[in-house]
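request received
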Amino acid sequence: MATTKPLPSHDRVIAVSHLSKTFGPVRAVDDLTFEVHPGRVTGFLGPNGAGKTTTLRMLLGLVRPTSGTATIGGRPYHRLPRPLRTVGAALEASSFHPGRTALDHLRTYAPQVGVPDARASEVLDLVGLGGAADRRVGGFSLGMRQRLALATTLLGDPPVLLLDEPANGLDPEGIRWLRVFLRALAAEGRTVLVSSHVLSEVEQTVDDVVIIARGRLVHASPLDDLVRLARPQVRVVSPDAAGLTALLARGGWTRAGDPDATGHAVDLVDVDAATVGAAAFAAGLELHELSTRNPGLEGLFLDMVATPAAPTHPEVAA
Amino acid sequence: MGAALRTEYRKLVTTRLWWVLLLAMVGYMAFIAPIMAFVVTQGGDMGTVPGGEGGGPLPPDAIVRTVYTIAVTLGYTFPLVVGTLAVTTEFRHQTITPTLLAEPRRSVVLGAKLLAGAVLGLVFGVVGTATVAGAGALVVSLAGQPTYLDLASTWRVLALSAVALALWAVVGVGFGSVLTNQVAAIVVILAFTQFLEPLLRFGLAATSWGDGIARFFPGAAAEALSGGSLYAEMGATQLLSPLQGAAVLIGYALLFAAIGRFTTFRRDIT
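response:
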């Protein structure tokens, strides 16, 4: 692979700021703000219809934002001098002419990327499609199309990569290959944004997560912070708020999140229910609930993106 | 623009469609030109159209006007379709997304398509006209009549025929950018070129006021550019001058392209 151009790292930052997009009555993206940094793989997560693809398309200048900005290295996509040299994007695995061969598909865009035709063969080998170079794309499996889409993004050896659901259609071996490949790209200092509607699919790949639902930001943090939130929690409810506080102080346990207003209920981490129950019994504290919740990462994710009982945006609730 | 042009060129030549259509055009022209040459050399009666001056044997130089321009009169659908498909396939196969990622300036994309369409159209024009001239001249000389291929004016007609066909491809690109649904675009093209325009031209020629309108139809303009036409020989329409014909044809291409630029090429690509 050719060496990455020594772009200053701020030129690789993807910045989305108060971004909104309305399609008719539907608010597909709603005041979305987040940043994606170089040298890391960022998972862009949310259920189907959350607005991930629309956000990516606004970043790429294909969809005009209703309001807000989406920039790469501080510039909107259409202001990038040779966009494919800066950003490689794969939006769907179906953007191919079925009658064109894999190599011809890549060679078609080579002049605009500004690379010699030899680069087309190079990236095909890179994604493991070297043997299928002269086959028409119409006969490709979904997994092969994903690899060809990835090869297309790599033509210009760009420092920023945007990949929409790249694991779709890949077999387990392919997903493993993709994971190693994306990690390697990030390790070279590139900015890698990977969207997915399944957290478990990218859990072992990403460093950071940006989670959206119904067009709004739900959570953005390093993956480690999300993992921490997903630890087992022990819920303790007592009618005696003061006694409960004292019990917590004696035990030296860590609360998960803020206590509720009444002080009657707390969630604890790094402690099991038996330990808390024994301590409460010893202190003679009356308990009304002592339970363990272990949502796991996927459960936490699903909780975050679940449709709220009382919709905050009636226009998209339908 | 240079890179965008090379990309457009590669898009066109890396699929089979262009040479399949070119082959079809050659086959059609190789079939129709000898028939037309035979009819003309045998002094066949071309029929009489109300209001026209037709009827009776055609003058000798009618060979040049009718036979050698048959590609413009009857074969123009091929470059027109090729030009149209250059845009509609992008939407059909969603390759418009990578196209606009490679070149986000949408006017440049459309401009490159128009220019690439002209180049490919010229290939159709040269090959189609050469087929007609070759097959036509063969039958004419077999009939023992002069082919007129030794006249500079004949070669001028042949060259303009190729140019007219090239412009048809540009009109096609413009039309495709207005109507991006491939099936709909082809249906409209076939309906207009094979049925509506011929019918209207004959119909309007029958009226006292219609001729002034009919000569501005794209088909009539292209025939005017090449300097002759079967329809004109049949007395259906008076044609514009070649230069005016070229201007009208380019006008259609630019009008369509402008509409396409402000509709199709302004929309969100989702």
